Each structure stands twice: as structure tokens, then as C-alpha cells.
Amino acid sequence: MAKTSRLCSLLLRLLAAAATLCAAVVMATSHDSTTIFGLTLDAKFQYTPSLEFFVVANAVGCGYTLLVLFVPPTTSLSRLVIVFDVTVAMLLTAATAAAGAMAEVGKKGNSHAGWMPICGQVPSFCDHVMGALICAFVGVIAYFLIVLHTIYTLLSPLFP
Amino acid sequence: MAKTSRLCSLLLRLLAAAATLCAAVVMATSHDSTTIFGLTLDAKFQYTPSLEFFVVANAVGCGYTLLVLFVPPTTSLSRLVIVFDVTVAMLLTAATAAAGAMAEVGKKGNSHAGWMPICGQVPSFCDHVMGALICAFVGVIAYFLIVLHTIYTLLSPLFP
Fold first, then answer.
1. According to the UniProt entry, where is the signal peptide (chains A, B) (predicted)?
2. Chain B: nearest CA to A83, how far in angstroms?
């Protein structure tokens, strides 16, 4: 039973590491430019603080997840990992939500504020952002399940 | 010791309920308009999906927090509350981050995308959004502490 639980935790962490790495790389490599009426519209993740935060948060999440794989499961350090798991889960959620909000404006614009959509002009950039968001969402779900799995382990009498 | 722990949990939940209620109300009452060159710029939270999500998430967070106060602490239901606590913590984090990303664009704009800042034109709206974000941030911190407090209670041998 303990072996199955550890295998489940390992698989979830590998999924989270892969998803956050994929999210960070896909967002970091997003770049597109176009010329409209002689003006060049250049789209990079560095131009938007929310997307920069997204790349940093997913890189941190990936690094942390890989580090945790080397923490022996019986030490007291392993019991502190849950505290960091909750922190990383909230960090990844914040990054995904902030980037998602920006992606929504990029795709649909906001006519009330006079912000035009840009995805028609820089489709390759928007495709990269969408791909990165899907990967990050998988990472958030994986971290949610990691936290729930730990709670399940701690509260096992409740789930016979 | 158990009494102090329960009091601490109660105070954190009251703080979370007050903060999320304040965030939802302040954001829901945000409204400002101005006229520039004969064009009316009308700013309401309903015009931005991220801000609508913010109001709904904080209202849900507040309602849930008040409901939990009536769950008896010794029932098995009270042990399931931690699962919902993690969910609400992530929901509030997502709402605050998404609204924060929009507030950043509203305040500073994004010259690369051609999005102009609007806070100079509708300062009252931006002040409301900023106030709501501060309240929501307090709610997120309160929920983070609620989750850590539960983990502390479950792992109490680790923290003598």
C-alpha cells in the first residue's frame, strides 16, 4: 500500500515536472512579428510582466519538483515538503491565471478600454502562449493532486 | 493547546471571510466614466472577464468560509474541509492573480501591443480595483495560513 502511494506520488511529480518544464520552454520560445502600415508589431513574452512571471514561476516549479524527487521519504525534511508543495501549487496557479488573463485580452481585446486583439496579427505567438497555458494547467492539476494525495496519506483513516 | 489551535483557526477564517467579502464588494462597486474628445470611456468590472471572475471567486470564498464556521470540529466532515480549503485557496489565488494582471495593464498599458493605460482617465475605478486587490491578497494570505495551520495540526509531532 505504501509502495503504491509512493509510486503514485512519484508519477504525479514527474508529470508536474514535465508540464512545468514544457510550459516554461514553450512560453520562453514564443516570438512573432508582423508589419502593419509600415509599423512593426513585435510580440515577445518579455514585453509582458505576467508572461515573464509565468516563465519564472514554471521554471521554479520544475526545479523544485525535480529537487523533491531526491528527498528521502522517511526523513523529517520530507514532512516539510508538503508546506512547500502548497506554496508551489499557489505560485503555479497565480502564474497560470495571470498569463491566462493576458492571453484572453490578446485574443479578444477589450473594446471598452480601447485594447485591440493582437492574435490576428501574431498568430504564432498566440499559439505558443496557448500551448504554454495548456502545459501549465496540467502542472497546476498535478500539484493540486499532489497536495490532495499528501492530505489523503495524512488523513488515511478517513478514506478506508 | 487544542483550544488555542481552534481559536487561531477561527480568527484566520473570520479574517478570510472579511477580506473576501470586502474584495468582492469593493470590486463590484467599482465604476467610473470620463469623456475624451467626445468619446465616453466607461469603466465597470463587468467589462473584463478577469474582474468578473474575481468578484465571483471572492463571493464563493466568503460564502464557503462562513459555512465552514458552522461545521462541528469533531465530525468526519470537518476532516474533508481541508480538501475544500486547498481548492478555495487556489481559486482565490487564481482570481487575485488574473485581476492583478489586468490592473497592471490598466495602470501601465502595454506599448508593444498598442494598449494604452486607462487609470489616468478613470482614477476612481482604478482606486477601487487596487483596494479590492489588497483585500483579496489578505484573503489569499489568510487561506495560505489556514492550510498551513491544518497541516501543522496534522503533522504536530514535527513542530514540538
1. 1-24
2. 7
Exposure on the CB side of residue A46, measured as CA atoms within 13 A: 4
Q: Do A90 and B43 touch (CB under 8 A)?
A: no
What digits encode the pLDDT tens for the residues A126-147?
Answer: 999 999 999 999 999 999 999 9
The answer to whether A79 faces chain B, any CB pair under 8 Å, is: yes
Chain B's closest residue to A114, CA to CA, is B115
SS3 assignment for A22-62: HHHHHHHCCEEEEEECCEEEEEEHHHCHHHHHHHHHHHHHH
Beta bridge partners of A35: A40
Structural domain boundaries in chain B: 2-30+46-158
Give how far B47 is from chain A: nearest CA, Å: 7
CA distances from B69 to B25, B55, B60 (A): 21, 22, 14
Give the model's pLDDT for residue A1.
62
Inter-chain residue contact A41 with B112, CB threshold 8 Å = yes
d(CA B16, CA B136): 9
- The three-class DSSP label of residue A31 is strand
Say what the ipTM of the complex is. 0.91
